[in-house]
């Protein structure tokens, strides 16, 4: 498994533990340069991450990255020809923005492919992906959705959440026809696993018990939370990349060192199933 660098923070205010603002351009350039020096070869982006997909090619400079981007959720009320024209335009725009660095595209909203017009979307994108040697796939919120999509389409690349609390990826559901690349996101659960316990519990009250267990586990095993969290990701078999985001250069250095230090960790005792904890879509609005 390898590290991949997420770019959401470069185009949006992102994460419960984030800096609260978009990362400044000079800092982004420094982060990308250092990431290349550290051997990180993959960037994860999306047309929905503010304007970062537009700016990314100019920010990377001469650094060589493979870029994986995502297709925005489909608009409503389009007929079949309109939908085909829309998604074709979206894909070609990402291709133009990212050039030869673009090596894969994922549907950002998995449910779009499960709708009645999912085959229209996939076929239109597949034609372009084949002509440009791009891997085509999907970003999902759970392995069950990916498994369903695998029965419908030849998914070549997928992204799924996974962390100490959300260990659904450890199930055998994907073993039969697994995509060639599975990228794990949310290793730190948007930073929740790295925040001080009381602060994190105040932000997400439903996670209080799980957080108490997490911090006690880290202390018992004499592992810093970042190292432990990354070690658990290393324990997810059949995955190719761990996608992580940083807000500044110091975080990147800390992350790279923690990744190097992290042993492979298998800790099913930390896993929980409550969506109110493992799925940020169920979290209370910030400030509530």
What would you note in describing this structure?
This protein is α/β, with parallel strands linked by helices. The protein has a single domain (2-281), classed as TIM Barrel, CATH 3.20.20. The chain has twelve helices and eight strands. Strands 1-2-3-4-5-6-7-8 form an eight-stranded parallel barrel. α3 links the parallel β2 (42-44) and β3. The N and C termini lie far apart (38 Å). The mean pLDDT is 93.
Features:
alpha/beta, 8-stranded parallel β-barrel, TIM Barrel, single chain
Number of helices: 12
Helix content: 40-55%
The biggest sheet amounts to:
8 strands, parallel, barrel
What is the number of E strands? 8
Tell me which CATH architecture applies here: Alpha-Beta Barrel
Secondary structure layout:
Layout: E1 2-6, H1 8-11, H2 25-37, E2 42-44, H3 52-60, E3 66-71, H4 80-98, E4 102-107, H5 111-114, H6 118-131, E5 135-139, H7 143-150, E6 157-161, E7 181-185, H8 197-203, H9 208-220, H10 225-234, E8 241-244, H11 249-261, H12 275-278
Parallel strand pairs: 1-2, 1-8, 2-3, 3-4, 4-5, 5-6, 6-7, 7-8
């Amino acid at each position: 498994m390898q590290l991949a660098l997420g770019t959401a923070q470069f185009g949006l205010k992102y994460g419960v533990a984030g800096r609260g603002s978009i990362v400044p351009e000079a800092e982004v350039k420094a982060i990308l340069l250092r990431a290349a020096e550290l051997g990180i070869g993959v960037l994860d982006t999306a047309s929905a991450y503010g304007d970062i997909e537009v700016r990314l090619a100019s920010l990377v400079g001469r650094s060589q990255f493979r870029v994986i981007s995502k297709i925005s959720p489909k608009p409503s009320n389009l007929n079949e020809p309109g939908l085909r024209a829309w998604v074709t335009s979206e894909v070609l725009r990402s291709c133009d923005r990212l050039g030869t660095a673009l090596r894969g595209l994922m549907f950002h909203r998995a449910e779009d492919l499960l709708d009645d017009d999912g085959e229209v979307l996939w076929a239109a994108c597949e034609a372009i992906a084949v002509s440009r040697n791009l891997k085509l796939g999907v970003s999902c919120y759970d392995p069950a959705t990916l498994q369903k999509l695998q029965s419908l389409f030849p998914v070549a690349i997928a992204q799924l959440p996974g962390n100490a609390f959300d260990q659904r990826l450890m199930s055998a559901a994907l073993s039969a026809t697994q995509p060639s690349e599975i990228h794990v996101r949310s290793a730190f659960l948007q930073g929740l696993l790295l925040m001080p316990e009381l602060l994190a519990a105040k932000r997400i009250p439903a996670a209080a018990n799980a957080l108490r267990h997490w911090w006690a586990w880290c202390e018992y095993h004499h592992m810093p939370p970042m190292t432990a969290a990354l070690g658990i990701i290393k324990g997810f078999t059949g995955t190719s990349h761990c996608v992580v985001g940083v807000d500044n250069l110091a975080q990147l250095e800390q992350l790279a060192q923690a990744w190097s230090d992290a042993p492979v960790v298998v800790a099913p005792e930390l896993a929980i199933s409550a969506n109110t904890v493992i799925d940020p879509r169920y979290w209370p609005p910030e400030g509530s």
